[in-house]
Design goal:
Structural class: alpha/beta
Oligomer: single chain
Strand content: 5-15%
Number of strands: 24
Largest sheet: 7 strands, mixed
Distance between the termini: 42 Å
Helix content: 10-25%
Strand order of the largest sheet: 21-11-8-7-6-5-23
Number of helices: 17
Length: about 675
DNA sequence: GCGATCAGCT
DNA sequence: CACAGCTGATCGC
């Protein structure tokens, strides 16, 4: 649960995800996603009154969040005051104090957060530096490196502070199985049950919150069976989700809810009340998505755990694990990191303390220096410089550890070609760069279906034994034995940090994935399962985006996507332009980088004037120098590729990681396709 | 009657 | 475990 108070030190006149108390005076509001614990005060009469007298105050969020929010009439008073910002589209916002007329400019960019539909992180750039508010997020390891807007050119932006989702920032949650692993487990459990007969149904015991949609869409996609839910009007403009859910109870997959659902289930009843089909009683199992973890080294767990005769728990997390957070934070390397979530029993100070080792202000002596070839002319002088000297980090020689991993897919999540990247694309090399990072942790390869077997084997129930025997003999398991399963020793042979129990149960693929340890090149997604490009229920995209909003977007300027490469913001005033296709030119100003990312922002936006600017494919000379020129239009190749990987490092199956990261980084959902296909078809 | 807060539950 | 809610009791306006 978020305990963020709403304000950031650097930009105290804006409020994020909190709308009560001191936030009532904010000049602008931001909502990262539509979960209640991030909406405190959002419908309070006091804020409603404030809105009525402060006509310049707006709420900024993603288009999907706006849609979800306005589906509830309780928030309809916000309708005229919400400005939906497109993902990864830098937008200038004027923060105006209506009493004094004082004005401050800030540029905000929404980045996909992978937490629930519409969820975003906010990247703010202005005179007080660059700060990132993550909201709640689940990003896989390596995804920060793929986020274009966290970079300037090929380097990571100089980020002053990160306000971080620390829900699972505890070694106890060291590793949580990836979305794909969890999804596969659930898919196969569901398959094993609903294929027994048309009267075998599953109930997904989900909480009343957004975030399970990609589970529904993938199940529906896999089995051609829509998922029964209580309500779907909030998705009316999101066909990627809408097509996979239904209010018709006559289906084998249910995610409907009822206050006494658990009680009903004990009587073999579904929350929606349906108990039979054509007079024949239904056989129901429940699957309860829960966050589990493979954290403590001596502990073993499974993606699917049977908890009763007809009850299962399935691993499922909306939040990044400890290692994922660590990866994210140590890639960003902010000067400060502040927790948005304080676990019960902990204090803000304590969590700040454990975040420090991953911040820039922490002693650099602990940092492993990686010197790329060809940069030997000037010795590093890290220890002679102030740790806080921002110029230090503007020195190209000091930044090579954190090169951006180019990914064209980052920008247009739903406009992607359905075809995976070729296996020999340059992107493979960039993964080797990522794996050279000291904190790099690769998720593990082999985690899925044996889980059921293991978990069932210790179960008490005998009456369903035949079902479980059936489950254990699923083709999946066979599949895993069909492919080349690397042995435990292969994964760990170079690893000095083998878990104490790591030598146990070598035959269990789950163990290989479960007892996670840093610096492993195991691969959770590298087996023969094909990850297909499908719909995107987790994305922040909304179909048929209404054009409304731009007219009222005073104090708002869309910036060119090129700013990421320029490292500077370059503005063109095109008042009233609302369609990027209509923008034909863009003025570029090349401004020497200052200590702050946006100290050089030049804005001519006038108060109360909608100003929308888009610069397209007008890369300036500077970025052309930065990027290796390529004849391929699609190529995002850069000098990054020429940095060798750490000698002796084992590489993951890059084609799989590449593909998966590409999907995940764009917020696409991932569906498991027929195992007989190859991953590159 | 409504909102805020908390305990209890899942 | 918590997750992200919901329900109901209590209290104050």
């Amino acid at each position: 649960m978020s305990s963020f108070e709403g304000q950031m030190e650097e930009y105290p006149t804006i409020s994020i995800d909190r709308f009560d108390r001191q936030n009532l005076m904010a000049r602008a509001y931001f909502l990262s996603h539509c979960h209640k614990d991030h909406m405190k005060g959002l419908r309070a009469p006091s804020l409603k009154r404030r809105l009525e007298c402060s006509l310049k105050v707006h709420l900024y969020c993603s288009p999907v969040t706006k849609e979800l929010l306005l589906t509830s009439p309780k928030y309809s008073f916000w309708e005229k005051r919400i400005i939906a910002l497109e993902i990864e589209t830098p937008t200038q916002i004027s923060l105006i104090d209506e009493a004094s007329g004082e004005k401050e400019e800030v540029v905000v960019t929404l980045l996909p957060a992978g937490h629930c539909p519409g969820s975003v992180m906010f990247l703010f750039q202005g005179n007080n530096g660059t700060v990132l508010y993550t909201g709640d997020f689940r990003l896989a390891i390596g995804e920060a490196a793929r986020m274009e807007f966290l970079h300037s050119g090929s380097r990571v932006k100089d980020i002053q502070s990160v306000y971080l989702d620390t829900t699972f920032f505890d070694p106890k949650f060291y590793q949580i199985p990836s979305r794909v692993e969890c999804l596969r487990g659930i898919l196969e459990l569901v398959r094993s049950w609903i294929t027994l007969s048309p009267y075998h149904v599953v109930w997904l015991n989900c909480k009343a919150a957004y975030g399970y949609e990609y589970l529904f869409t993938n199940l529906s996609e896999e089995f051609g069976t829509q998922v029964h839910v209580n309500k779907l009007d909030m998705f009316k403009n999101m066909p990627d989700i809408l097509h996979h859910i239904t209010t018709d109870r006559n289906t084998q997959i249910h995610a409907c809810r009822h206050p006494q659902a658990e009680e009903l289930f004990r009587w073999n009843r579904l929350p929606c009340g349906i108990i039979s089909k054509t007079g024949i009683p239904l056989h129901v199992i429940s699957i309860k998505p829960s966050t589990m973890w493979f954290g403590e080294r001596t502990r073993k767990t499974n993606v699917i755990v049977r908890t009763g005769q007809s009850s299962y728990r399935a691993c499922f997390s909306f939040h990044s694990s400890y290692s994922e957070i660590k990866d994210f934070l140590s890639y960003i390397r902010p000067v400060n990191a502040y927790p948005n979530v304080i676990p019960v029993g902990a204090t803000m100070d304590k969590v700040v303390e454990i975040l420090k080792p991953f911040c820039r202000s922490f002693s650099k002596s602990t940092e492993v220096k990686y010197k790329p070839l060809g940069m030997l002319k000037k010795a590093r002088t890290v220890f002679l410089e102030s740790d806080e000297d921002e110029d230090l980090f503007d020195d190209p020689q000091l930044m090579p550890l954190r090169h951006k991993i180019p990914n064209q897919h980052t920008f247009q999540p739903l406009l992607l070609p359905q075809k995976p990247e070729p296996q020999d694309c340059p992107g493979q090399k960039k993964l080797s760069i990522a794996s050279s990072r000291t904190d790099s942790v690769q998720t593990s390869l082999l985690t899925n279906f044996l889980d059921c077997e293991e978990s069932n084997s210790e179960d008490e129930e005998q009456s369903e034994a035949s079902f479980h025997r059936g489950l254990n003999s699923l083709p999946l398991q066979k599949q895993e034995s069909d492919v080349d399963i690397p042995e435990w020793k292969i994964f760990f042979k170079n690893n000095a940090d083998i878990p104490d129990d790591g030598s146990e149960n070598l035959i269990s693929s789950t163990e290989a994935g479960g007892s996670q340890s840093p610096r492993l090149f195991s691969d959770s997604d590298g087996d023969s399962t094909h990850i297909s490009s499908q719909n995107s229920s987790q994305s922040t995209h909304i179909s048929e985006q209404e054009s409304q909003g731009w007219d009222s977007q005073s104090d708002t300027v869309l910036l060119s996507s090129q700013e990421r490469n320029c490292g500077d913001f370059t503005f063109l005033n095109k008042g009233g332009s609302r369609n990027r296709d209509l923008v034909t030119s863009c003025q570029l100003e090349q401004i020497t980088s200052g200590p702050k990312d946006t100290s050089d922002v030049k804005s001519r936006a006038q108060d109360g004037e909608a100003t929308t600017v888009n610069c397209e494919k007008d890369a300036n000379e500077e970025e052309q120098k930065l990027l290796n020129l390529s004849t391929s239009v699609d190529s995002q190749s850069s000098s990054d590729f020429e940095i060798p990987s750490t000698p002796g490092a084992e590489l993951p199956k890059q084609e799989h990681l590449q593909l998966l990261y590409a999907k995940l980084s764009t917020g696409e959902s991932i569906a498991i396709e027929n195992k007989h296909r190859t991953s590159s078809s």
